[in-house]
Amino acid sequence: MIEQLPPYRTAPGARAVLFDFDGTLSLIRSGWMEIMLDMIMETLGPLADPRGEDHASVRAEALVYVAKLTGKDTVHQMQAFADHEAALGGTPDTAQNYKSEFLQRLEKVRSARLDALQAGERTAASLLVPGTLEILSKLRASGVALYLSSGTDHRALVFEAGLLGLTPFFEERILGAGPGGSTKADLLARIVAEGTNPADIVFFGDGPVEIEATREIGGVAVGLATDEPECLVVHPKKRAWLIDAGADFIVPNYLPEGLVEAVIPSV
Questions:
Q1: Which domain holds residue 45?
Q2: What is the pLDDT of residues 38-77, one digit of tens each?
Q3: Do the domain assignments include residue 71?
Q4: What is the DSSP string of 142-195?
Q5: Strands (DSSP E) along the chain, which ranges?
Q6: Rounded CA gap, 123 and 141, in Å?
């Protein structure tokens, strides 16, 4: 199903199409949000108890900033966590240290999936949002430039894109967080500065960050409200977050017939 959100924009003259990575194309880190929230609650839960605050309410509050900052470098979510901890009377560690702790936990899940992929126990297709290769092939054949941009650290992004068979679609246009990388807003600004009309830019993403950044410059934003890991139906909370961020379209995956034509009518 393709949900069009009036007054939605389309990009009949699309020249650049950007994709987020985790949750938009890749499922290597599927479940990361629950891992992050579990880690946060290990600290916030004991602080909430003496104050008589319900754990579910504290977790829901954490979910808001975790979701809102999805798509940025993880350190931003960890800074919001540190601020939350301080507000509850705790003495937070640095956001960078919290990021390191989270990445260590996530690495256990990530490495198990990559090991299974490299051992032939899993296929690359099983770690991609359904329809990924098909839409990338169709867009590449149309002649638009494809970009991959992510809050995932740049080196890991390049490595994982290669394992999943995505590198040929994006070539050198792969940019992650950290040294050698770029924020999504930076990338959008660079593409515009190089001469692309903002109305000719499309961004596919599952986080509010890229949706908001795309809308701010006047591009077309497609929200992937994927209910992971199957990614066959729309996740209601993701849908609400992406709509609030300004998505023009909402889809659960890349399987809906006519998706590319709906977003880029000239294809």
A1: 32-118
A2: 999 999 999 999 888 899 999 999 999 999 998 788 899 9
A3: yes
A4: HT-EEEEEEEEEHHHHHHHHHHTT-HHHHTT-EEEESTT---HHHHHHHHHHTT
A5: 3-4, 16-19, 145-153, 174-177, 201-205, 220-224, 249-251
A6: 24
123 assigned to some structural domain? no
Tally of domains within the chain:
2
**Token digits of residue 6:** 């009036």
260: amino acid identity, one letter? V
The residue assigned the tokens 């938009």 is 24
Task: Say whether both 244 and 153 belong to one domain.
Answer: yes
Among 50, 83, 118, the domain boundary falls at 118
pLDDT tens across 146-202, in order?
999 987 888 999 999 999 999 999 999 999 877 545 678 889 999 999 999 999 999
- State how beta strands 249-251 and 201-205 pair: unpaired
Whole-model pTM: value is: 0.90
The phi-psi region of residue 165 (left if phi > 0; otherwise alpha if psi is between -120 and 50; otherwise beta) is left
Question: What b/e string do you get for 235-255 counting C-beta neighbours within 10 Å, with b at 16 or more?
Answer: beebbebbbebbbbbbbbbbb
Q: Are 147 and 170 in contact (CB under 8 A)?
A: yes
